[in-house]
Design brief:
heterodimer; A: alpha/beta; 50% helix; globular; B: five-stranded mixed β-sheet; two-component regulatory system (chain B); membrane (chain B)
Chain lengths: 230, 436
């Protein structure tokens, strides 16, 4: 995740809304982003629950929303559901980056399937967070090692792969990329390791994200059922 | 539990031993089993005594009914089970959401058998007793009433047990049918008494009057009863909430507050503070998200558990954060245990020599293929790196405890320098047989 720092031009600017029900955490993130100084991240709004979040996001139209998974009023998933129109906006899409302390795979996969562009844990450093925000602004997916683990788990190979559902299945390369992310590799390192370009890594990750968000495969359903999600 | 019943003075924390009817392994009302447990006698004896007393003009039945009526039903039973088979034991089961719940395995077959036997014995008893014609005429209706009452009472017991044991929810229709059967039996019995009294011509009007009275009572008391049940269930809900909160509070008090105090005291020692905070975070996470796993400090049984346990211990010991990602899971066997030991060694090395560069990444994947299970573990740090060739041949740490250990058990180990600094250890081991 650190390799995005190089891409941050001096003129980059991103407007961010912070959604979290803990005031202390919001203050902390503000300070953390502020500490990195010239990052160009501007927090234009804050919200502590679902209703507030939807109001603030609609009013300020930020580029990126840092979204907590657990929120009063239905959780991050509810915010995503009610912001679907804003996400689909072709000209100025609002993009969501999930930010949570949650360890529960269902929470995380839930917001990703709801349309969030990535998931990072709250232990993330300020620099990495800023990188992730820019990455999401660019339309890329942001996978933390833990998210990569969850996704691999969700897509875990079964004994009898359905033949006609190749589209929904992770390709060998995508799986490889995910594995390396789970092992803590940065995109640049993955590119070096697999002899591909960083752009290719990004496109693989985006493909995985898309599959995760679109897929309705029986495996995912089964996975969700096993965890009492559906 | 059975030991506590036979030798109650040894280590029973509740000194006033109360008589309960046993809900486990009971045949009828659990009276005999409960009594047996209370008195420390085999159940068979108590049952035989009851049967014997029953022959004495039905005294046993009366006694049994009285016990059934007055003695509360207890869970877990104070019953001495001479054969501790799993069929009639209360067990804890871990449900899919990871929470433990009590599950009562009911031996329904035995109960049905007992009921049938009882009816047969009662019939023989009735046949043998010489009663005056008048009394005999009342007997059948009385038996009917008795059976109906017993049926309904048994049901009340079940409902009660269901409240603790969370069973019987889907048996609601069956319960309704039972209640209806009980009511019909009682009704038939009562009607029979009227019929035998010879007041058949008034039967219709009597029934009408009775019905009217019942409807009247229902109208008067109905709202009150509904309110009461609502209040009761609400109160129960509140109590459950309070219990849950107390449990959370106990945990928070025990560990979180404790840690916070320690952190305040060690505020100057950054390393110690970090270690405490990490340990507490891990503990809390385990408690919040894996209730079952958090409570079993015994040896890990699966690869995922082992990896997490090892990482936690290394983290505690060396004060370096380890980020663990585990995909899939399978039970441990000998070779995998060796792999876990090698992985632990790798984690220790990474924490010792590569910890300054940031968190150590631990990744484990358990892949189930058609040939078997393959377990892959990688441990990666962002330290200064490591050159295997530069290590003197007499330093056996890595060679023996990681590479040697893996190879002896049929696995492979690979150490390599990561392009942008740091070392990565990759351990692969195959698990031969399939796991379900």
């Amino acid at each position: 995740m650190t390799d995005a720092a190089a891409e941050q031009g001096p003129g980059r600017h991103v407007r961010v809304v912070l959604v979290d029900d803990h005031r202390m955490f919001r203050t902390g993130v503000q300070a953390e982003i502020g500490r990195t100084g010239t990052t160009g991240v501007e927090v234009v709004g804050e919200a502590a629950d679902v209703d507030q979040a939807v109001t603030v996001i609609t009013a300020t139209r930020p580029e990126v929303v840092l979204l907590d998974v657990h929120l009063p009023g239905g959780g991050g998933v509810e915010v995503l559901r009610r912001s679907a129109a804003l996400m689909a906006d072709a000209e100025h899409p609002v993009r969501f980056l999930a930010l949570s302390v949650s360890d529960a795979a269902e929470d995380v996969i839930g917001v990703i399937r709801g349309g969030a562009r990535g998931y990072v844990t709250k232990t993330i450093t300020g620099t990495d967070l800023v990188d992730s925000i820019f990455r999401v602004q660019d339309g890329d997916a942001v996978f933390s090692p833990r998210l990569a683990g969850f996704v691999l788990d969700a897509f875990a190979s079964t004994d009898a792969p359905p033949v006609d559902e190749d589209l929904d299945r992770l390709t060998q390369r995508e799986r490889e990329v995910l594995r390396l992310i789970a092992r803590g590799y940065a995109y640049k390192e993955i590119a070096k390791q697999l002899f591909i370009s960083v752009k290719t890594v990004e496109s693989h990750v985006s493909a995985v994200l898309r599959k995760l968000q679109l897929s309705n495969r029986h495996e995912l359903t089964r996975w969700a059922t096993a965890r009492r999600l559906v | 539990m059975p030991e506590a019943a036979t030798a109650p003075l040894v280590e029973d924390p509740r000194p006033p031993r109360k008589l309960y009817r046993s809900s486990d392994g009971r045949w009828l009302g659990g009276v005999a089993r409960g009594l047996a447990g209370h008195l420390g006698l085999p159940v068979v004896w108590v049952r035989l005594v009851f049967v014997g007393l029953f022959m004495a003009d039905g005294l046993g039945a009366l006694l049994y009914a009285a016990f059934w009526f007055f003695v509360p039903l207890g869970i877990g039973g104070v019953g001495t089970d001479p054969r501790p088979t799993a069929s009639s034991v209360l067990t804890t089961e871990v449900s899919a959401d990871g929470r433990r719940r009590l599950v009562a395995r009911r031996p329904d077959k035995g109960q049905i058998l007992a009921l049938v036997l009882m009816v047969i014995v009662a019939m023989i008893f009735v046949q043998n007793v010489h009663l005056s014609g008048n009394t005999k005429a009342y007997l059948v209706p009385t038996v009917l009433v008795g059976a109906g009452v017993a049926l309904v009472w048994r049901q009340a017991d079940n409902a009660r047990r269901a409240r603790w044991a969370e069973v019987g929810r889907r048996r609601r229709t069956l319960n309704l049918a039972r209640a209806a059967a009980g009511v019909v039996l009682v009704g038939a019995g009562v009607t029979g008494i009227f019929v035998t009294q010879g007041s058949t011509e008034h039967l219709g009007s009597i029934l009408q009057a009775a019905l009217a009275v019942l409807v009247g009572i229902a109208l008067l008391a109905g709202p009150y009863l509904i309110r009461m049940t609502q209040d009761l269930s609400e109160e129960r809900l509140m109590r459950i909430r309070a219990q849950e909160r107390a449990e959370v509070a106990a945990h928070v008090h025990d560990s979180v507050l404790h840690t916070l105090t320690l952190i305040q005291r060690n505020a100057d020692n950054a390393g110690e503070v970090r270690r405490l905070a990490r340990a507490q975070e891990r503990d809390l996470r385990a408690w919040l998200y894996k209730p079952a796993a958090a409570e079993n400090p015994q040896e890990p049984e699966t690869v995922a558990e082992a990896v997490k346990r090892n990482a936690a211990e290394v983290e505690d010991k060396h004060g370096v954060p380890l980020e663990v990602v585990v995909v899939g899971d399978c039970p441990l066997d000998e070779a995998l245990t060796a792999q876990m030991q090698a992985a632990r060694e790798a984690m220790v090395n990474a924490a010792k020599y590569g910890g300054e560069g940031g968190a150590v990444q631990v990744y484990a994947e358990i892949e189930t293929t058609s040939e078997g299970v393959e377990v892959f573990v990688s441990v990666r740090d962002r330290g200064p790196g490591f050159d295997m060739d530069a290590v003197p041949a007499d330093r056996m740490g890595v060679r023996e405890s990681i590479i040697g250990r893996m190879e002896r058990n049929g696995g492979t180990a690979r150490l390599r320098a990561v392009p942008d600094g740091g070392t990565e250890v990759e351990l692969t081991m195959k698990r031969a047989e399939r796991t379900s």
